[in-house]
Design goal:
- The chain is of the alpha/beta class.
- Helix content is about 55%, strand content about 10%.
- It contains 19 helices and ten strands.
- It has a four-stranded mixed sheet with strand order 7-10-8-9, covered by helices on one side. A three-stranded mixed sheet has the order 1-2-3, sandwiched between helices.
- Strand 8, helix 18 and strand 9 form a beta-alpha-beta unit.
- The termini are far apart.
Length: about 575
C-alpha cells in the first residue's frame, strides 16, 4: 500500500512522508520501495527521534550559527513553507523538456561557431540561450538535502544536455571548413585557477539569485559561460581526432560543474532552503546514488585542485630559479606561464627583462628546478634587454599588449623544440604571433652555404605544429646567381664563377633578409629581365645596371651565364662622393 505524498510543512505532522511531491515524468517515489528499504527508513527515523540530548543541543547550536552566518552574508532565513515552495519550484524548473533540449543544441551551435572563429562576443552570445542553470540548481539542492531522488533526476537532465552539446560540437566541426585550434579553443583545454574561480563565484551568485528569486537569467549566463564552451570543445576534440583536447575540456567541464553544484548546495543549506536532515531518506539504494554522484563530481575537482597546487609550487620555484640563473640583479619576470601535463614533464615559459643577456639561462634554470623539485621541468626563456627603467616599463607594456591581442595564454611557440631542430647556436629568436611564425637568426657557421641554411629551415619545420619556422641566414654583400640556360649558351669556361647559386635560392635568402630592392648586374638586359621578373614575383624590386660592352666586341662576347645581385645599397658617404664627382665633371 502506497503512502500519500509529502504535504507542505505547515500542515504536516511530526513525521511527514518522504520524498517530496512527485512531478510528472519523475521516477516512482520510494513509497513503492521494497519492504526492506521501508524498514530501514523506519529504523533510521526511530533512531533520529531517540537521539540523545547532546545531539539535540549540537543541532540547535549549528542551526543558530547557520542563521547568524546567513544574515551576515545577506541571505534570507526561509520559513519551512517558503523552503518547501522553493524546493518544488527548483525541481519543476529542472525537469527534462523538449524546449530544454532544443535550447541546449542552439546554445552549443552558437558556441562552437564562436570558438572556431575565435570570437569572444559570439561565445558570450551563445550563453544567453543556454538553459543549464535550472538542472544544476536542482542538482545543488539535491546535494544540500541529501536527496537521492533529486540527485538522480538532475544528473540525468544535466547529462542529456551535455551529450547534446558534445554532439552538436562534433557535427558542426565536421561540417565547418575551418578546423583550426583557435586561442578560444585552446584556452578551454585544461582547467586553470581562474576557470575554477569563475565557476565558484558563478555558483554562489546562482544560488543567491535562486534563493531571493531575482537575477536568475543574468546569473544563468555566467554559469553557462563556465560549462557550455568546454562541452563544445569536447566535441571539437572528438571531431578533429585530438583526444587530449577532448580530455582536457571534459576535465574542465566536470571541475566547473562540481564547483557550481557545491556552491549551490552551500547556499541552499545556509539559507534553510534545503530539506532538514531529519527527513533524509537513508535507504541503501539512494545512499549509493548519493555517494556515486558525490564521487563523480568530487574526483575531477580534487584532480584539478591537486594540479593547481602543483603548478603553484612550480611557479614559485621557477621564479626563484630564473632570477638566480639570470644574475639576481635588475631582473624582471614580465610573464611566467606554468603548465603541468597529465602525461609528461611540466613546462615553464617566461619572458625576462634584464639589462644584459645571460647565456645558458634555460639549462641553468632547468638544473635548479631539478634540484629543488626533484623532477624534470621544460623551460623556455625569452630575454628582452632593457638598460633603464623606462625601457623596462616599455618592454613590459609591449609584452602585455602582445599577449592580450594574440591570446597566447595557452598558445606559446615551442622555442626549445625549434632550437633543437635548428641545431645551431642562435643569435636571436623572435616570433610573429599574428602570422604564427618564429624567426631564428643563427650564429654564422663555418663553411655553411645558403643551401645548407635552407635545408635546415625545412627540417626545423617538420614536426612543429601550428607554427612556421623562418631561418634568417647570415647576410652577404652580394650573390652570384646562375641564369637560365638558352640555346645560345656555351659550356662553362674555366674562368666562370663556381660559387653561383640557383635563382630560387637567391630569392629565398633575400626574403629572409627582408630586402625590398636590390641591384642586378653582370649580364645583358635581356638576360637579367627573367631574373628581375622572378624577384618581382617574390616581392623584391630589382634595378638592372646595363652591361657596358666595348665597341666592336658585341658579336665576340658570349652570353653571360651568371649575374650579380648587390644586396647592400650604397652608403650615404658613397652617395655623397658620387654626387660631388658628378658636380666636378660638370
Amino acid at each position: 500500500m502506497t503512502k500519500p505524498p509529502e504535504t507542505p510543512p505547515a500542515s504536516a505532522g511530526p513525521d511527514p512522508a518522504m520524498p517530496e511531491t512527485r512531478l510528472p515524468g519523475d521516477s516512482p517515489a520510494p513509497e513503492t520501495a521494497t519492504t526492506t528499504e521501508g524498514d530501514a527508513r523506519d529504523r533510521f527515523h526511530q533512531l533520529w527521534r531517540r537521539r540523545p540530548w547532546w545531539v539535540r543541543r549540537a543541532e540547535a547550536f549549528v542551526h543558530l550559527m547557520r542563521v547568524r552566518f546567513a544574515h551576515l552574508v545577506l541571505l534570507p532565513e526561509l520559513t519551512p513553507d517558503q523552503a518547501y515552495d522553493l524546493r518544488q519550484t527548483v525541481r519543476q524548473e529542472g525537469q527534462l523538456t523538449r524546449g530544454y533540449m532544443l535550447m541546449c543544441a542552439l546554445a552549443a551551435g552558437i558556441a562552437i561557431l564562436g570558438l572556431l572563429q575565435s570570437s569572444t562576443a559570439v561565445v558570450i552570445g551563445a550563453m544567453l540561450v543556454s538553459p543549464l542553470m535550472s538542472p544544476i540548481a536542482s542538482l545543488g539542492f539535491g546535494f544540500a538535502s541529501l536527496d537521492g531522488h533529486r540527485i538522480r533526476d538532475a544528473v540525468r537532465v544535466v547529462a542529456i544536455g551535455a551529450a547534446i552539446g558534445i554532439a552538436t560540437g562534433i557535427l558542426l566541426t565536421w561540417l565547418s571548413p575551418i578546423r583550426n585550434a583557435t586561442p578560444e579553443i585552446l584556452a578551454r583545454t585544461e582547467p586553470t585557477l581562474l576557470d575554477l574561480a569563475v565557476a565558484l563565484f558563478s555558483g554562489v551568485a546562482g544560488g543567491y539569485a535562486t534563493v531571493i528569486g531575482k537575477g536568475g537569467t543574468a546569473i544563468g549566463v555566467a554559469i553557462a559561460t563556465a560549462l557550455m564552451p568546454p562541452l563544445t570543445v569536447i566535441g571539437y576534440g572528438i571531431g578533429v581526432f585530438q583526444p587530449m583536447f577532448a580530455f582536457g575540456a571534459f576535465l574542465l567541464f566536470l571541475t566547473n560543474l562540481a564547483a557550481i553544484t557545491f556552491a549551490f548546495a552551500v547556499i541552499a543549506r545556509l539559507s534553510g532552503a534545503a530539506r532538514p536532515f531529519g527527513k533524509v531518506e537513508w535507504t541503501p539504494r539512494y545512499v549509493a546514488v548519493l555517494i556515486a554522484a558525490f564521487l563523480a563530481l568530487a574526483t575531477p575537482l580534487t584532480m584539478t585542485l591537486m594540479k593547481l597546487t602543483s603548478e603553484a609550487r612550480i611557479r614559485s620555484a621557477a621564479q626563484t630559479a630564473i632570477e638566480h640563473a639570470c644574475g639576481d640583479q635588475n631582473v624582471t619576470i614580465a610573464q611566467l606561464d606554468v603548465r603541468s601535463r597529465m602525461f609528461g614533464a611540466p613546462s615553464v615559459r617566461a619572458l625576462v627583462i634584464s639589462p644584459s643577456y645571460t647565456g645558458n639561462a634555460e639549462s641553468r634554470t632547468e638544473a635548479l628546478l631539478r634540484d629543488t623539485l626533484g623532477q624534470d621541468v621544460e623551460v623556455s626563456l625569452q630575454q628582452v634587454l632593457a638598460a633603464d627603467v623606462q625601457s623596462q616599463t616599455r618592454a613590459m607594456v609591449d609584452a602585455a599588449m602582445e599577449r592580450t591581442t594574440a591570446g597566447i595564454a595557452a598558445d606559446v611557440p615551442p622555442y626549445k623544440s625549434i632550437r633543437q631542430k635548428v641545431g645551431l647556436p642562435t643569435r636571436s629568436l623572435w616570433s610573429d604571433r599574428a602570422q604564427r611564425m618564429v624567426y631564428v637568426e643563427p650564429v654564422p657557421a663555418p663553411e655553411w652555404t645558403l643551401a645548407d641554411y635552407r635545408a635546415t629551415e625545412q627540417a626545423a619545420n617538420q614536426g612543429v605544429t601550428g607554427w612556421t619556422v623562418r631561418l634568417v641566414p647570415p647576410p652577404q654583400a652580394s650573390l652570384t646567381v646562375r641564369l637560365s640556360e638558352t640555346a645560345e649558351d656555351q659550356p662553362v669556361a674555366d674562368g666562370d664563377a663556381t660559387d653561383a647559386i640557383p635563382a630560387d635560392l637567391a630569392v629565398w635568402a633575400l626574403q629572409r633578409w627582408g630586402m625590398g630592392e636590390v641591384t642586378l648586374s653582370g649580364a645583358s638586359h635581356d638576360r637579367l629581365a627573367g631574373l628581375a621578373k622572378m624577384l618581382s614575383d617574390g616581392g623584391i624590386a630589382a634595378q638592372i645596371v646595363p652591361l657596358v660592352i666595348p665597341p666592336g666586341e658585341e658579336d665576340e662576347l658570349a652570353p653571360a651565364r651568371t649575374a650579380t645581385i648587390s644586396v647592400y645599397a650604397a652608403s650615404p658617404s658613397q652617395v655623397s662622393r658620387q654626387q660631388a664627382a658628378a658636380r666636378d665633371d660638370q
